[in-house]
Amino acid sequence: MDVLEAIKTRRSSRSFQESDGLPEEIMEAIEQSIINSPSGSNAQESHFVIVQDKEQLKRIKRFSPGLSGNPSLVIVLCSNAREALEKGGKDSEEVLRFVNLGIVAAYILLSTHTLGLGNCPVRSFHKEAIKKLLELPHEMEPELLISLGYSKESPRKKISRSKEEVISFDKYGAIHG
Fold it and tell me: Starting from the edge strand earliest in sequence, which strands make up the sheet with 140-149, in order?
């Protein structure tokens, strides 16, 4: 599957088949997606906790109302404001660290989709509880969860707005052509 096909076909999955973990080649793809993602100012200030332990997943679910189903694993995307400031300056601290996490999230979502996994980004969780469960250092903040597993059912179809509604050329409202 090429990148554009992955972009067109990926949808959030919220129910997952029971699983005893994911194959090593998928774990490697997840690691490569993280390691090879670009980072503004090359700050590389983010950290990622891959949670596979079933008991730890249950604990995380208790504090994550947006986390549905029984994923095989959850990736916790974390930022570090202090490190972002040191490595990339004020802009990295205030904005780029979140842009960087968004880029990594997209890489993870698309690469795992091409390997046949369902996935779903989750922002609805109790940050302090997750931080404590994962024993994150003081300066590290959990920002996003991504649940992964084999989808139990097909995700619902996406209804997109027309390109003329969301894309302008040269100035707002101008249509290409």
Answer: 47-51, 73-80, 140-149, 118-122
pLDDT at 51: 98
Rg (CA), the chain: 18
DSSP 51-80: E--HHHHHHHHHT-TT--S--SEEEEEEEE
Mean pLDDT comparison of 3-12, 16-25, 46-55, 145-154, highest-scoring range: 46-55
- What is the DSSP pairing of strand 140-149 with strand 73-80? antiparallel
85 contact partners, CB below 8 Å, separation of at least 6: 92, 93
Q: What is the dihedral of CA 58, 62, 63, 67, to 10 degrees?
A: 70
Distance from the Cα of residue 94 to its chain's centroid? 19
From the list 25, 11, 40, 32, the residue with the least C-alpha distance to 100 is: 40
Which alpha helices (H) appear in the chain, and where do they start and end? 3-9, 24-35, 54-62, 81-88, 90-91, 97-114, 127-133, 163-166
Q: By C-alpha distance, which of 20, 28, 46 is closest to 100? A: 46
Structural contact between residues 73 and 89, judged by C-beta atoms closer than 8 angstroms: no
